[in-house]
Amino acid sequence: MKDTNCIFCKIANGEIPSSTIYEDEDFRVILDLGPASRGHALILPKDHYQDVCALDETVAAKALPLAAKIGAAMKEALGCSGFNVVQNNGKSAGQTVFHFHIHVIPRYDGGPEMVSWKPGEATAEELAETAELIKNKL
Ligand code: 5GP
Ligand code: ZN
User: Fold this and answer.
1) Is 57 helix (H, G, I), strand (E, B) or coil?
2) Which ligand ends up closest to the CA of 96?
3) What is the pLDDT of residue 2?
4) What ligand has the least distance to the C-alpha of 43?
5) Residues in the chain where the model's pLDDT stays below 70
6) Burial class (CB in 10 A: 0-12, 13-18, 19+), 96
7) How many Å apart are CA 137 and CA 129, to the nearest integer?
8) Which amino acid residue places its CA nearest to atom 12 of ligand 1?
9) Which ligand 1 atom is nearest residue 16's CA?
10) Is 31 left (phi over 0), alpha (psi -120 to 50) or beta?
11) Residues 51, 99: Cα–Cα separation, whole Å
């Protein structure tokens, strides 16, 4: 299903041109217009899903192997030494386009810090209490 108001639906289905690096029946993979590093790519399903919670399970099962394939190709083609697979869900998590997508971000030795956080602290009791809250909703 497509959303006629969604820019990533239009890009994924070829209605708006993009720097495409891969395409199959389920996905188009494009270069990000505002790359965090050289080669930063976005994996877009051709159907519209707002986020990972809405994603079809068959499409989901294909998405991570595709991210691995893209990352491996980046290492060979661009000489990056690693890559991040990042996926944002919800405004508070940094999602700005509400069509599910996976970022594959090449990382170069000596490159800038990104996709990181400062480790916090939690007591064993806090961890147990939080784990219980989540477990009860699964
Ligand atoms: P989000 O913040 O939702 O996880 O990521 C959205 C990403 O899409 C951003 O990195 C942004 O640079 C990229 N982006 C937004 N609009 C376009 C577009 O029209 N074309 C391309 N190639 N990338 C886009
Ligand atoms: Zn869409």
Assistant:
1) helix
2) 1
3) 83
4) 1
5) none
6) exposed
7) 13
8) 34
9) 19
10) beta
11) 6
pTM more than 0.90: yes
Residues ≥6 apart with Cβ < 8 Å to 90: 51
| Residue 44: CB atoms within 10 Å | 25
pLDDT of residue 35: 98
| Close Cβ partners of 97 (under 8 Å, ≥ 6 residues apart) | 7, 8
CA distances to 98, 123, 125, 129, 132 from 120, in Å: 29, 11, 15, 17, 20
Do 47 and 100 meet the contact criterion of CB atoms below 8 Å apart?
A: no
C-beta atoms surrounding 134 within 10 Å: 8
How many whole angstroms from its chain centre is CA 27? 13
pLDDT of residue 115: 85
Residue 85 β-bridge partners: 104
Measuring from atom 17 of ligand 1, which residue has the nearest CA? 33
**Residues that are catalytic:** 101
Distance 97 CA to ligand 1 centre (A): 7
Which residue owns the Cα nearest ligand 1 atom 8? 32
